[in-house]
Amino acid sequence: MTFLYTPHLIRELVDVPIEKVVTSPVACHSVLISSAGEAWVLGRNDRGQLGKDHAEQNIRYPVRLDPAVFNKEKVVTAATGRNHTLIVTDAGKVYGAGDNRLGQLGRNGSIPGFTLIKSLKDHTVVDVACGADFSVVLNDNGQVFTFGSLEFGQLGTVTSSNLLKIAGQFGAEPSPDPTLVQGLSNRKIVSVTCGTNHTLALDDEGYVFSWGFGGFGRLGHSEQKDLGSPRMIDQFSSTHRINRAVKITCGATCSMAIDGNKQLYLWGKWKNTGDGSSGQPWMFPKPLFDLNGWKVSDIAAGASSLFALVYSEKTSIAWGQVKYGELGYGDDVQRSSTIPQKIEPLEGIAPLMISAGLGHTLMIVKPDNELVPELPKWPAVEETEDGCVKCKKTDDEDNLLLCDKCDDSIHTYCAIPKLTEIPEGEWYCDRCHPPNKKRSHSTSSSVPDLSVSERKKAKAAA
Ligand SMILES: [Zn+2]
Ligand SMILES: [Zn+2]
After folding, report:
1. Is residue 3 part of a domain?
2. For residue 104, how far is its CA from the centre of ligand 1 (angstroms)?
3. Ligand 2: distance of its center to the CA of 416 in Å?
């Protein structure tokens, strides 16, 4: 098992502008969406959640999904549950893949690969969120629909007095029919987010609603009761818009928000010991003193990790009791911290977006910075002999070029097409960017079939 303790560039995607990264606290899989509206997937696939044959249990490197699967519509967003994935296209359609035992794919039965959720065909869906075994969709009218497991009220479709009965009798029964969350029907919802078994929704005026599993105060209502329907959180109900929320996110057992002042709020349980643990959970949203004065631009919470991005300061901050290096603090330093710390390897790089999963983290950074190409790439390539991969000569180093994707070196005059001088900016070899082929990911042939490390191995063996 390889762990990455410092942020790495994903080699396969260094030449693809990425618009959105998606994972969640319960997910060991991820979706990456390009500016051109194409989706890549990686991670666990044991239930077919990546839309691939589940015999391929783990997909180690990003694999592009065939746009034909989505009727050539552009992918705009996605969500990941424990064992399922939803993908939304610019036509407002939702496609699902993976585990459907509790109806979390909005239909009955299991169909391999990504399949259109027909029960949502009358809606133009603009956003989705997934908890462990349930799904939440938002349409362009600001209405919220849910399906999957309703065991703890996480679908928001039952009265709390019925909840205990439901949990006892029907906890494991599937609820595959997308159902309107009536408790939000006079609101225009703009964002939805899920923890393992709880849900938050943000409306266009900055009010925040929560429902589902209430343990450790993650719903933010100063009590641990489960809620079967939405309830507004007091801390974001100020008469002043600036004190209401602009962004919400859920961790596994906690929740976070940013208000109009870009101040971060946190509630629930996110630690194993001390303040903020099961013994002393935060029962309602509290501003985090450690981050006073920081203008937080994006937030994420994974299974055990917490993140705050500060775009204006080119700083990324992380904390949490983690095991797998998912805070990205760097090699040869502490890997876990209950106090917010800067992610030092990313200092000076403007962070655009972050998504935190179970044991891993994905970020998008602004590439117009000389520090970004200096980050290590993953996977690493084995050291090969120095010199030009074409003519095998090691001399004339002044004319040796390095491919910014595979790290092969090639003389300017051995390159295809030939170059007369070292080019400015990024350069990719003819294997990474075949000449005569339109540079587009609309045909699978433009994407190398083998991962870089596999090609390197093949080369070394040859
Ligand atoms: Zn050469
Ligand atoms: Zn190359």
Report:
1. no
2. 55
3. 11
